[in-house]
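Methods — Computational structure assignment.
A single polypeptide chain was analysed. Its primary sequence is given first, followed by the predicted tertiary structure written as structure tokens.
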Amino acid sequence: MFRHTTPVSWVVALAIGAVVALNAQAGGDREIQLGAGRTGTVERVKVRGTALEGNLEGDSPERDVTIYVPPGYATDQARRYPVVYLLHGYGGRDDTFIKRLATLPEAEDRLAAAQGFSAAIVVMPDAFTLHKGSMYSSSPTTGDWERFIAEDLVAYVDSHYRTLVSRQSRGLAGHSMGGYGAIRIGMKRPDVFSALYVLSACCLTANRNPRAEAMAPAEAIKTREQAEKAAQEPGFGASTNLALAAAWSPNPQNPPLFLDLPVKNGKVRPEIVAKWVANAPLEMIEQYSSNLQKYYSIAIDIGTKDTLLASNQQLHATMTRLRIPHSYEEYDGDHTSRIGERIELHVLPFFSKNLAAPANPSSPAPRP
């Protein structure tokens, strides 16, 4: 097995020192936290997705989005920035990489002080839906999340921030369901993004033989009220299969949830299974291999104790067979234990290296 390892000693040294201080301030439709000195700015904004309007689930097309703006943005008015779009996992929110799995503002503040590091604006949308996750897919039931991310969200950020309006300066990344979203959207939209980072992606392989007993809790939910109650339960459960069905086998003729499960009355439905299979990246990748070959750089990583290890290994093997250039790394960790560290030591440096950006005039001067 190929294992790619990047030296991180220079990055580790940066992690000693600066602690970010964020002061809250509200204004208009934005909840703003302003940093001072060498700290960045965190804004929480509302972005209306035309691609999400009219979704049958009734999820709001007005999405919360957390946006990190690097140090120096306010003072250097002539400078424009690359942008990283970072997608959270199932059950997560737009604060996943701010409060839950990582403290991204502090991480990028530390890195921004390093000689040669190219800081980016980082955009983190909320993809929580009726069943706790959109799967970043295109569906009349949940809305067209592929288009929301690649078009509506990108257009908003480019029109409201000083970005570098070019695919060479845009990156897409995600963890778990977000990793699935990154590879799914990335396969289809090389016209928008030029670099991909996939962390511990879920849902890569097709389940051709769903078990009736596993689908039974989801099949038992018949009303929206029951669905809302199920979504309040922690972790995974009936909502997970409902989310997959809403994204991959929507049915506008089947109210009130407007979806079809691959099992009905305890019997497998091959026509619905086929729809789920068609949404597995490992089933789609050959069709989109030429698109993935257009990327400047692609990285995949996964913990050796992650239950998704085998499917990520399959993704790596398939991309290798198809001659899609990429790096792949396995590290000692489970599905969530080291995500904050991975973002600081790997994800942000990856995009600093691979996204086009002008020289940073505020970088520290080279040491004599």
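Note: Residues 145-160 form the longest helix (16 residues).
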